[in-house]
Design a protein that fits this description.
By secondary structure, the chain is of the alpha/beta class. The protein folds into three domains: 30-335, TIM Barrel; 363-487, Galactose-binding domain-like (Jelly Rolls, Sandwich), CATH 2.60.120; 497-581, Sandwich (Immunoglobulin-like). It has ten helices and 25 strands. An eight-stranded parallel beta barrel has the order 1-2-3-4-5-6-7-8, surrounded by four helices. Strands 9-12-17-14-15 form a five-stranded antiparallel β-sheet, with no helix packed on it. β24 and β25 form a beta hairpin. α5 packs parallel to α7 (180-197) and α9 (244-261) packs parallel to α10. The longest helix is centred in the N-terminal third of the chain and has 21 residues, at 130-150. It is globular and about 75 Å long.
């Protein structure tokens, strides 16, 4: 080919070439831990073992066994002993970088702990004016960020301040003393220093009590009104072991409000933890909190980080996720995908909370004796058990409404103890209007009992324990199973309605239901308690065309806070979804 021809071809190619459209990808959800104590623990001869009993470096263990991808490290200014100063932070950051882990740097602007109860200025800053404090924040932030940058470390996130419920650098930056002006100025100086040293790092402003929406609105409205800048709203969430699901539900509502109220901002749970004596409850809390953070609209829920999970017998801290055997407890499995298939009975061992009158997944039915139903210590195979007991005569039922149960014949199994004397004390199952039950034997030690021949033909079954008892009678239940003994030869016809979704969920006022019809059909929607009691009809929709639909279901303002079932019936087939009603 002559040169002129080749040149013309190249010119034509250049004239018609267009750069490929930029592809946007959502960064991976951050699952991580603050392990700032690690160097101090290692100096104290603490060691860590993985799931197979091998001693391992903690960074490698968290990444390899639990799929953690993020490390958070606190920075103090001039801490006694040196731990968490700039040099110590660099040493830990290099270990995270070597494994390709993401990094969150947490500036406390103190020589020691900064939290809602204490925001003590560094000793070297004690006599500073407000102008000098602003410069000190900028200079300290710049020094640490520059040290990281010169070692080729770029934090993905940087916190300016830690748990700033009432400002920082007290008293000058304390909101309840001097208002928001100084607090906002200090935060903005930290923001400016981070961006000057590392423009791609996202700046976090961190407030504790992540379930408290009014506190967050108060803080971030005040910062915004006083000119502070930030990218991400960080929250701490340390639930109560008996009612953690209430905390996570409120935290989700708070996160959703934050990204709506402050356009362009994101949210992140930068600290969480639960009592170390309830590892299974902690596991379920983590799974729930991760799911709720991932559900924040537009992928603006960035991640969930556990605070110092590796702690055991260390400085009195009681919310770690490690055991005295130097290995992680089941708590950290909350960062891993739940195994499938899941058991038909939810919270079968009553371990998903601490001792409580409202065990997750179970409903209490009683006119006046709801306090006769509770969980307590000394379970069959683990910590907790369900007990029926009251010092006066009582009548109570504890039940769970199971939905989407594959049709077939089942046996209900459970471990029981029973002091005897009741008029009625039965393990039971109800399906298709048929009640199967067995009386609990009188036994002072754990015994397994069974209810066979439970036929499920509509995908639903209620199971439970019911007692009609005299004063002082007790019985206990644990490790409940619903076991398939034979499947139906033919499966029921599939419903025309699919893709059922409630919105919003959790709900506090009006809500709606979306679904898709594979063919024209009529739909009925009803509300039930977890015990299977029908509360009311929510909607009756005549025949609709095939395709997607949304129907308003009214308001839940009149309902008590708790968990309910919304059931959609179409062509004789019922589908259910849990609805969480918040305060």
């Amino acid at each position: 080919m002559p040169f002129s021809t080749r040149l013309l071809a190249v010119l034509l190619l250049l004239a018609t070439w267009r750069p490929a459209a930029a592809q946007t990808t959502t960064p991976a959800f951050a699952k991580g831990a603050d392990i700032s104590w690690i160097t101090q623990m290692e100096a104290g001869n603490y060691v860590f073992y993985n799931k197979t009993g091998q001693q391992k470096d903690l960074f490698q263990l968290l990444q390899g066994d639990y799929a953690l991808n993020t490390i958070r490290l606190r920075v103090w200014v001039n801490p006694p002993g040196g731990y968490s100063n700039a040099a110590d932070v660099l040493a830990k950051a290099l270990r995270a970088k070597a494994l390709g882990m993401r990094l969150l740097i947490d500036f406390h602007y103190s020589d020691t702990w900064a939290d809602p109860g204490a925001q003590t200025k560094p000793v070297a800053w004690q006599g500073y004016t407000v102008a000098q404090l602003k410069q000190a924040v900028y200079d300290h932030t710049t020094t640490v960020m520059t040290l990281l940058r010169t070692n080729n470390i770029t934090p993905e996130w940087v916190q300016v301040g830690n748990e700033n419920n009432d400002g920082i650098l007290w008293p000058e930056g304390r909101v309840t003393v001097n208002g928001f002006a100084n607090f906002a100025a200090f935060i903005d100086q930290g923001y400016a220093a981070v961006k000057a040293a590392s423009p791609t790092s996202k700046v976090i402003v961190h407030v504790a009590n992540g379930e408290n929406n009014s506190l967050f609105r108060y803080n971030f409205d005040g910062l915004l009104a006083n000119g502070a800048r930030w990218d991400v709203i960080g929250l701490s969430l340390y639930p109560d072991a008996a009612t953690w699901n209430t905390y996570t539900t409120r935290a989700q509502a708070n996160m959703n409000d934050m990204v709506s109220r402050y356009p362009g901002k994101e949210v992140m749970v930068v600290e969480t933890g639960l009592d170390n004596y309830v590892p299974l409850a902690t596991r379920e809390m983590l799974r729930d909190l991760i799911a709720k953070t991932q559900a924040v609209p537009a992928n603006k829920g960035l991640g969930v980080l556990y605070w110092e999970p590796q702690v055991y017998s260390w400085q009195g801290y009681g919310k770690g996720a490690w055991g005295a055997n130097n290995a992680a407890t089941a708590a950290l499995d909350g960062f891993l995908a739940a195994p499938t298939p899941q058991p038909l009975v939810y919270n079968a061992g009553f371990e998903y909370t601490a001792a409580t009158a409202t065990p997750l997944g179970w409903a209490t039915t009683s006119t006046a004796d709801a306090d006769a139903d509770y969980t307590e210590w000394n379970g069959h195979s683990s910590q907790f058990r369900l007990t029926h007991y009251k010092a006066t005569a009582y009548s109570v039922r504890t039940s769970q409404a199971l939905t989407n149960v594959p049709n077939g014949t089942y046996t209900l199994k459970a471990w029981v103890m029973n002091g005897g004397g009741q008029t009625t004390c039965q393990l039971y199952a109800q399906s298709g209007g048929v009640d199967k039950n067995i009386a609990l034997p009188t036994t002072g030690t754990w015994a397994q009992i069974q209810v066979p021949g439970i036929v499920v033909s509509n995908g639903q079954c209620e199971i439970g324990l019911r007692s009609v008892a005299a004063a002082g009678n007790y019985c206990s239940l644990d490790d409940v199973e619903l076991v398939l003994t034979s499947a139906l030869a033919t499966a029921p016809a599939a419903s025309a309605a699919t893709a059922m979704q409630l919105f919003p969920n959790p709900a506090a006022g009006p809500f709606s239901l979306s679904y898709t019809l594979a063919r024209p059909a009529a739909v009925q929607v009803a509300l039930y308690s977890l015990a299977g009691q029908r509360i009311r009809t929510l909607a009756e929709v005549p025949a609709q065309a095939a395709g997607p639909h949304r129907v308003a279901l009214g308001s839940v303002d009149d309902l008590a806070a708790g968990v309910y079932l919304v059931q959609l019936t179409c062509e004789g087939v019922t589908s259910s979804q849990r609805l969480v009603k918040v305060q």
